[in-house]
Design brief:
The chain is an alpha/beta fold. It is built from 14 helices and 12 strands. The structure holds pyridoxal-5'-phosphate (PLP).
C-alpha cells in the first residue's frame, strides 16, 4: 500500500500544467505562432546581464569544492548576511543572517512555514483568489486550509468574511501580494486593518496567529505602487521570498524564508523552520545559486517589459468590453468571464486558440487568469482573437 493522498496529488496534473501541455501539443499541430498560450507564470524577460557575469565569475574564480559543496543546512552564512543587509537597507528592518533560511523557491518556503507552525487540529486561512498550491502545502504539512471568499471587484480583503472564519484553531494566515492571479497589491490600509485584527484575535485566543507572506512578485509593480514590507507591520510574520520571478530564475529554485526579528519566541520559531527544512529534505539550497543571489540580491530583470504587456492587454481588453481589475503588480490579468461558468468561457476561448486558466482552482469561479509574461507580439497577435470572442458574447462597444 502507498499513500493515497500522494497518489492523488501525483496522478493528477494541475489545471495550469494541463493547459500548458495542451499548448505544446496544439503548437505541434498548427504552429506555435498560432497558439496564444497565456497559461503559465514563467518569466519571459531574461535575467539581467549581471547574473551571467556573476555566474561566470563564480565559476572561474571560486574554489569548486566550495562552490559546489554543501553549505550550512540553513544556507551559507555570508549569503544570508548579505540578503539580510539588503532587506535592512531597502525596508529599514533589523534582520540578521540568523533570521534567514535559504530554500528552493517560494514553494519550499511556504511548505517549510506550514510544517514549522502546524500542530494537529490547526487551521490556516488564506484569501481568494489564491495560489492554487497553498492547499497542498498546508494540508500535506498537517493543517487544514480555510478560504475567505474574494471581495469583488477590487480583490482587497473582505474583513467581515474573514472574521467569520478566524477562530481559536487559526494558527496562521497566508497572504500573497502582488497577487497571483489577480495582479492586485494589497493597499497599506488593507494591511494595517489585517494586522490590527490579527493582533486583536491573538490576544483574544491567547496565542499568536502567524502571518505568512508569500512575496515572489514583490518587485514586479507598476506606476510606483509600494508593496508594504510586512515585517514592519506585524511582529509574528514570516516572509517567503523567491528569486524566480523578479530575477527571472524560476528553474534555479532559489529563495528564502525570513523570520521577523521581532517574532515572539523568534529563536524557537527559527529553529522550527530549520527543523521543517530538515524534515522536508530542503537543507542546503543549491550552493551555486545561493552565492549568485548573494551577489545579485538588489537586482531585478527589466520590469518595463511587463508594464508594456500589462498596458497593451488591459487597455485592449477593457476597450473591447471585458472587465477586470487593473493589475498594480505581478504579471497576470484576472478577467471576469462574460458567462457565469468560466470553464465554458475557457472552452469558447480555446476555439480561438486562446489558452486561459479558469479561476475555479484559485478559489474564484467566474474568472479566468491570463499570464502576460509572454512576448509582446503574442499579445498583439492575440488581440483580434479576443475581439472576435468579445463579439460572440456581444461585448464590443
Ligand atoms: N507563490 C506564488 C503566488 C506563485 O505564483 C508561485 C509560482 O508561480 C510560487 C509561490 C512558487 O514560486 P517558486 O517558483 O519560487 O517556488
Amino acid at each position: 500500500m502507498y499513500s493515497q493522498q500522494m497518489y492523488a496529488l501525483g496522478s493528477k496534473r494541475s489545471i495550469i500544467r494541463e493547459i500548458f501541455e495542451y499548448a505544446k501539443v496544439r503548437s505541434a499541430e498548427i504552429g506555435a505562432d498560432k497558439v496564444f498560450d497565456f497559461s503559465l507564470g514563467n518569466p519571459n524577460v531574461p535575467a539581467p546581464e549581471a547574473v551571467k557575469e556573476t555566474l561566470l565569475d563564480l565559476i572561474q574564480n571560486t574554489d569548486p569544492v566550495v562552490l559546489h559543496g554543501y553549505t550550512s543546512a540553513q544556507g551559507d552564512f555570508g549569503v544570508r548576511d548579505t540578503i539580510a543587509k539588503s532587506l535592512n537597507r531597502r525596508f529599514g528592518t533589523q534582520l540578521t543572517a540568523n533570521h534567514l533560511y535559504m530554500t528552493v523557491g517560494a514553494a519550499a518556503s511556504i511548505s517549510i512555514c506550514c510544517r514549522a507552525l502546524s500542530c494537529p487540529g490547526d487551521e490556516f486561512i488564506t484569501f481568494a483568489p489564491y495560489f492554487t498550491e497553498y492547499q497542498v502545502f498546508v494540508e500535506c504539512n498537517g493543517a487544514s486550509l480555510k478560504v475567505v471568499p474574494a471581495r469583488e471587484p477590487d480583490f482587497q480583503i473582505d474583513f467581515e468574511a474573514f472574521k467569520a472564519l478566524i477562530n481559536e484553531r487559526t494558527k496562521a494566515v497566508i497572504i500573497n501580494s502582488p497577487n497571483n492571479p489577480s495582479g492586485v497589491v494589497y493597499s497599506e490600509a488593507t494591511i494595517v486593518t489585517l494586522c490590527d485584527l490579527l493582533r486583536e484575535k491573538s490576544a483574544e485566543y491567547g496565542h499568536p496567529i502567524y502571518l505568512i507572506t508569500d512575496e515572489p512578485y514583490r518587485e514586479i509593480v507598476y506606476d510606483g505602487v509600494q508593496v508594504p514590507f510586512l515585517i514592519n507591520y506585524y511582529d509574528n510574520c514570516l516572509v517567503c521570498y523567491s528569486f524566480s520571478k523578479a530575477l527571472s530564475l524560476p528553474g534555479e529554485r532559489i529563495g528564502y524564508v525570513a523570520v521577523s526579528n521581532k517574532m515572539q519566541d523568534g529563536e524557537a520559531i527559527y529553529a522550527a523552520v530549520c527543523g521543517a527544512g530538515r524534515a522536508l529534505g530542503y537543507v542546503c539550497a543549491p550552493s551555486l545559486f545561493q552565492f549568485l543571489v548573494g551577489r545579485c540580491a538588489d537586482l531585478t530583470s527589466d520590469m518595463s517589459f511587463y508594464r508594456t504587456n500589462r498596458d497593451l492587454l488591459y487597455n485592449g481588453l477593457t476597450e473591447m468590453g471585458y472587465s477586470c481589475v487593473k493589475p498594480d503588480g505581478a504579471f497576470y490579468l484576472f478577467v471576469k468571464s462574460p458567462e457565469k461558468d468560466a470553464n465554458a468561457f475557457f472552452e469558447r476561448a480555446k476555439k480561438y486558440e486562446l489558452l486561459l486558466v479558469p479561476g475555479d482552482d484559485f478559489g474564484c469561479p467566474g474568472y479566468v487568469r491570463i499570464a502576460y509574461c509572454v512576448k509582446t507580439s503574442l499579445i498583439q497577435n492575440a488581440l483580434p482573437a479576443f475581439r472576435a470572442l468579445a463579439q460572440e458574447y456581444g461585448l464590443t462597444k
